[in-house]
Amino acid sequence: MSENHGASSTARAPSLATAASTMALSPENALFNKYEVGKLLGCGAFAKVYHARDVATGRSVAIKVINKSRLNNNVTLMNNIKREISIMSRLRHPNIVKLYEVLATKSKIFIVLEFVKGGELFAKVAKGRFSEDLARKYFQQLISAVSYCHSKGVYHRDLKPENLLLDENGDLKVSDFGLSALGDHVRSDGLLHTLCGTPAYVAPEILAKRGYNGAKVDVWSCGIVLFVLTAGYLPFNDPNLMNMYKKIYKGEFRCPKWMSPDLKRFFSRLLDTNSESRISIDEMKLDSWFRKGFSEVKSESIGLVKEEERILQNLNAFDIISFSRGLDLSGLFDGKFVASEDVGRLTAEEQPETVMEQVEEVVKAESGRLQLRKTKECGVELEGQNGDFVASLDVYRLTDRLVVVEVKRKAGDATAFAGLWNDKIRPVIQRRPEVLVSGSN
Fold first, then answer.
1. CA-based, 20 to 30 A from 283: which of 102, 148, 252, 419?
2. Which family does the record assign (predicted)?
């Protein structure tokens, strides 16, 4: 995240007075004993973004703070946040903003992101159009990132200068994956159907309200971005939104006279209203205008984790949020339940093996009133005296220091089961009820 780019694409840097009133913390009072939070970078309808410093490493980060109470009745925002966290945790590329980790309390979610110091590309181009060489550099970095996303089955669907950031070295970073789609969102016809994006940057096939190819839609938006960088204005623009849509649908635009013939030809392929004949990224990399000075960037790929592997590995941020209904994470912090409920969870600042030892100690203390059968390395089945209930208990690692302990009633007396968990097992497990952490470092 950048100093200009806040919780939404419209967020801007605050005044000095606003920045001075933000929640600066001393190291001993740092957020989760890990981050010193500094000035406010931006704010939106449901989130604020702060600059922060990692106490251990001194690294600058951006922390997006989301108040869960504002999300409970907004399914769209909840889905966007889940999608953004899920996707960003899977992507590793030099030209994509990195998600470091996600932290949560009962009332807030904290998304810790790479701090991108240079601000939005939009702010820079607003001062005047770029030379073709500079625009080409940024465009090549954009295409490198987008190509990588597509190789992982991720389609951004909201590419625009406001979502493109610049670091201290002047290199481009793609951000804001809240409207992105994954390959599994494609319908049986092989196309995406959700209408989304920013009006001036949407492809004509989206306006036609038919299915569309996610990769070709991103190529169109990249073409609009390149036009803005080299011309200094939008190719399709009109005060009347419907008139602008008509221009987009018909492909009515003119390149300014100062553009080189090669670039004008390149735009004819980028902004082709026919998505089937529109240039692909592979074809783009063979184009004479694009290829000048281009070299492929190596990415730190971690790929898309299979469902079976995901269950066995560290739980990621998407899993943490998905543990609860409507992004209410309170069940993960309390760990109690009443007799009518069948599942309990809590966090513990322990190793999985230690938690299992603690459970075994409880079983031994029950002197035959409780039986334990090991089902996997960090999982057991518990059976009450005379078979009055059967439950499973599993321990999942979150980070090097934290685990989630989950217990489920499989059969039998709900009251006896709740009593075992609330009165016997839960109290012996050391935990930090105020903290839930997941990271992708």
1. 252
2. Belongs to the protein kinase superfamily. CAMK Ser/Thr protein kinase family. SNF1 subfamily.
End-of-domain residue from the set 114, 140, 166: 114
Tokens representing 416? 């006896």
For 409-439, the pLDDT digits (tens) are 888 888 888 888 888 888 888 544 433 333 4
Q: Are residues 287 and 187 in the same domain?
A: yes
pTM over 0.70: no
Give the CA radius of gyration of the chain.
Answer: 25
In this structure, are residues 289 and 310 in contact, taking their beta carbons and an 8 Å threshold? no
Residue 414 is part of which domain span? 335-432
> Is residue 320 in some structural domain?
no
Catalytic center residues: 158
| CATH number reported for the structural domain that contains residue 25 in this entry | 3.30.200.20
- Give the type of residue at 255: C
Selection from 342, 344, 309, 362 nearest residue 411 by Cα? 342
Residues listed for the chain: 441
Q: Tell me: do 102 and 135 sit in the same domain.
A: no
Both 149 and 232 in one domain: the answer is yes
Annotated binding site: 64
Alpha-carbon gap, residue 401 to 367, rounded angstroms: 31
Q: Which residue type sits at 222?
A: C
CB 295 within 8 A of CB 157: no
Annotated binding site for ATP: 64
pLDDT at 270 over 70: yes
